[in-house]
Amino acid sequence: MADDILTVEGLKAYYQMNYFGVEREVRAVDDVTMRVMANEIYGIAGESSSGKTSFIKVLAAAIRPPFRIVDGRVTYRFNGKPIDVAHAGEDEIAKIRWKHLSYIMQGSMSVLNPVRRVRSTFEDFAFRPMGLKRDAFWEAVEAHLARLHLEPGVLRAYPHELSGGMRQRVTIALATVCRPEFIIADEPTTALDVVVQKDVLAMIREVQQALGSSVVFVTHDMSVHANITDRLAIVYAGRIVEEAPTRTIFTAARHPYTRHLVASLPRIGDTSPKPSLEGRPPSLAEPPAGCRFHPRCPIAVERCRREVPVLEERPGGHRVACFRADEALPAEKILNVEEPLS
Amino acid sequence: MSAPPLLDVRDVSKVFTMGGVLSRKQIRAVNEVSFALSAETPEIFTIIGESGSGKTTLARMILGSDVPTSGELKFEGRDIAARRGADRLAFMARVQPIFQNPFEAFNPLKRVDRYLASTARRFLNARTEAEMEGPMDEALHHVGLSLKEVKGRFPHELSGGQLQRTAIARALISKPSVIVADEPVSMVDASLRMAIVNLFKRLRDELGVTIIYITHDLATAYYISDRIIIMQKGHVVEMGPARPILDAPQHPYSQLLKRSVLSFDDAGRGLITRSGREEVDTSAEALVKGRLEPAEDGRLVRVG
Ligand SMILES: Nc1ncnc2c1ncn2[C@@H]1O[C@H](COP(=O)(O)OP(=O)(O)OP(=O)(O)O)[C@@H](O)[C@H]1O
Ligand SMILES: Nc1ncnc2c1ncn2[C@@H]1O[C@H](COP(=O)(O)OP(=O)(O)OP(=O)(O)O)[C@@H](O)[C@H]1O
Ligand code: SF4
Ligand SMILES: [Mg+2]
Ligand SMILES: [Mg+2]
Q1: Is the CB of residue A26 below 6 angstroms from any atom belonging to ligand 3?
Q2: What is the ipTM of this complex?
Q3: I need a surface site. Which of A149, A304, B101, B144 has the fewest CB within 10 A?
């Protein structure tokens, strides 16, 4: 499609390790196909350790052994020129980093050099791509920091002299100051108070709209997805189980896992005990056969244990991977997943 | 005479000096904060507030990892900063931390089970493998993991959520009476988040552990807290019983905080707007001049 800026096809990426002679394979990304269009914010949600970070490490071309791409393609089109970052060389990838593609990593210390002041990091990463005169550059940086409620003083600080949320905002500032076409953000607002979080999300949305750029936004926080994403993918155990316009996910989800997620959203003032999904998150080293959700699914049937449901296209840009997606699901089943039915 | 409080924080302030010789700048990270936690009634004492308002700095002083510029912090009647040697070790076993970012809390080059084992060795005086592994496995089970799952793994091989649960397990090994949890649930999903805060409740109710819970999540704060303090720019702006305060906050910053919680009503419409933070007077000068005054429901609110 002409409007796609990113196309991912049949992507498999595993951690392949060897512990004292024992092979271990963690299938963190297992057969993912999706695309991101120009001018949209694409969200990825899913429980802890479902493979969100692993997936976007591939998108950001930031993978290192033992993490390997086993199969598939990850193609970007910047200025109409395709580049498959799953197979491109490091020098080709270096050309698109920061200017076209920027990546906000989970855990903000990673880009910030602990022994250098924040100012130096900005100089290293942003000065050349922005192509401004020195004074104009610092003026632009300071103006950008202000949008994130950071005083110019943070430039003089070492990372450890900033609070967790201040560091997180510095990383966001770094990744957005060059106004890249494609931003990949992994849990960028988890360390922020709700006031600053709201303003940071609004800023990301403003930058995205002003430039018509694309954002892949990863977080487990459904309230953030509700407010910033246009489309949303729900990941379970290394696979996309549902994908739709964000509004559809919140109002007309079809996958039992998504429906559980939406039904158990936390609200202030609510003191009723919240049901959590029974059973453990699946191990990605030995994922359940068939539908990976079946051990915890309230409406699983025999078939679910044997066959893998494919992510099927439905009307309205909606994709669901479930054999029983058309089944009505009573509220108590969505909320109280005690024992899997057979 | 009644027993001293478990923890007594009295007029505590912390000033940092930042920058080189030429551009020195003073940052008042914490300003005259006072509160006490009772030894008789374990509670969940929650601190919420602005990013950069001094929550982590306050937590570090309670843990004795940093000393106040002025004011006093006492644990069971004795100055925390003055403890040395074995006395300090005993204090550390009783007051355990859980930090904000699990990626930063763990040494990337050390296997996580080794990290747990060193805690068992240090505080339980465990020597043999078996002596260490029993308490480690027990602590891991409290958080929904097992020793088998984490054994031999490096921090980067675990997800953020798994790491954070491991960090909580580590804090439980020495059977502490206070846990200082600095944003313990920021990195985990809603379901795990509930499991962890329910675990805190259980620790309070069954083991009598007092939890100092630092968070940005108003929903879980409401759900589990007994008392709450709200901070802005190093100052306490409102403090008292948690539910009345979160139901009807009185200080303008507390009100802004509650207003800014994201809602689901307009899900997917892309309507996010700014918080309007600028309209609420947030100048540091105004806060310094104000003082905490008693108000309804036994709360204190900063006025003036
Ligand atoms: N370097 C690594 N080596 C081995 N396994 C890894 C490595 N990094 C991650 N994993 C495993 O891959 C799985 C997916 O982890 P990932 O970090 O992608 O999850 P996530 O969805 O981002 O979780 P969270 O919400 O907690 O950040 C987990 O089981 C994790 O233990
Ligand atoms: N070692 C240090 N040297 C200088 N300044 C510091 C140091 N540690 C913290 N600060 C400053 O003290 C203030 C309070 O920081 P703190 O980490 O306590 O905030 P916080 O409330 O925990 O914020 P967050 O919610 O973002 O974690 C910040 O302005 C920070 O820059
Ligand atoms: S009904 Fe079957 S296919 Fe659908 S989610 Fe449940 S287990 Fe998976
Ligand atoms: Mg992650
Ligand atoms: Mg902090």
Answers
A1: no
A2: 0.89
A3: B144
